[in-house]
Amino acid sequence: MARVTNDLLPGTLDLLVLKAVSREPIHGYGISKWIEQRTNDTLAIVDSALYKALHRLEDAGAIAAEWGVSENNRRARYYSLTPRGRQMLRAEVATWKRYVAAVSGVLETA
Q1: N or C: which terminus of the chain has fewer CB atoms within 10 Å of its end residue's CB?
Q2: 66 and 76 in contact (C-beta within 8 Å)?
């Protein structure tokens, strides 16, 4: 399993976090585990990179945070998507799909 920090393209971690929190309010550890599961353990997000992304997205108004109690009965910050975050997620998904299509077109040429 690869430990991911700066190996992702710029903005990719933010996109993954936005997608993870779009489902339901979730804490940082849950976001990390969700990404690992969805990528079949290909991506493992380093805590420092994840929390920088969470702060960046919260500062941008894309996510909101509130304190709650985790399934382990510990205090945790739960993150949820804001209306601005939904707009950002739609735009980033569209951009990512165009990027993937463009790179795939190059890689598949003879």
Answers
A1: C
A2: no
* Overall number of domains in the chain: 1
Residue 46 within a domain: yes
Domain hosting residue 88, numbered range: 2-105
Is 110 inside a domain boundary? no
CATH assignment at residue 18: 1.10.10.10
Please check whether residue 54 is in contact with residue 17, taking contact to mean a CB–CB distance below 8 angstroms.
yes
**Amino acid identity for residue 34 in this structure:** W
pTM more than 0.85: yes
